[in-house]
Amino acid sequence: MAVLPINQLKAKFETGDRPNGSDYADLIDTTSYRADALGGDGNNSVTINGIETATVFDTIDTDTWRTVKYMVQMSHAGSSSYRSTEINIVFDGTNQNITEFASVANTSDNVGNISASLNSGTISMTVTPTLSPITVRFYRTGLKA
């Protein structure tokens, strides 16, 4: 029973293979670890460095996704300013509806602002720095249309 790299774990369950009890234990240990270590090994997050102007950091295909939730972290290394926020978006077939909540920062400096725009079936998530340059790290999860 161990935490294994995903490619090793997948090899145990390929077509024609017969996983044993130990293989299933490895599967449980690995998925439990990855759930507890969300983003810890880079598995669920994206990082964009050096943002100085308004920048699209992600796009959402509205034909595929109905509801999307983000956790976004913005940081400015020069002032040691950090901000974390959550964003929910729902698309009803015509309009995007967005709410930002659970924002927390370590200083009164606003590191950046996040906005969403809809164009031809794609929602673009944009960050506009108020301090420059900033780093954005985000995690996204969604429910399909």
Describe what this molecule looks like in 3D.
The protein is extended, with a radius of gyration of 19 Å. The strands form 2 sheets. The chain has a 5-stranded antiparallel β-sheet with strand order 1-8-3-4-5, with no helix packed on it. It is 15% helix and 50% strand. The longest helix has 16 residues, at 21-36. Strand 4 (81-91) and strand 5 (96-105) form a beta hairpin. The protein has helices spanning 6-11, 21-36; strands spanning 46-51, 55-61, 65-76, 81-91, 96-105, 112-119, 122-129, 134-144. With 145 residues, it is an alpha+beta fold. The protein contains 2 helices and 8 strands; from the N terminus they run H-H-E-E-E-E-E-E-E-E. It starts with 5 loop residues before the first helix and ends with a strand.
| CA(first)-CA(last) distance | 38 Å
Q: Biggest β-sheet: count, sense, barrel?
A: 5 strands, antiparallel
Element order: H for helix, E for strand: HHEEEEEEEE
Which whole number gives the mean pLDDT? Answer: 86
Structural class: alpha+beta
Number of strands: 8
Percent of residues in beta strands: over 45%
Helicity level: 10-25%
What is the topology, as strand order, of the major beta sheet?
1-8-3-4-5
Number of helices: 2
C-alpha Rg (nearest Å):
19 Å
Keywords, separated by commas or semicolons:
145 residues, alpha+beta, five-stranded antiparallel sheet, three-stranded antiparallel sheet, 2 helices, 15% helix, extended
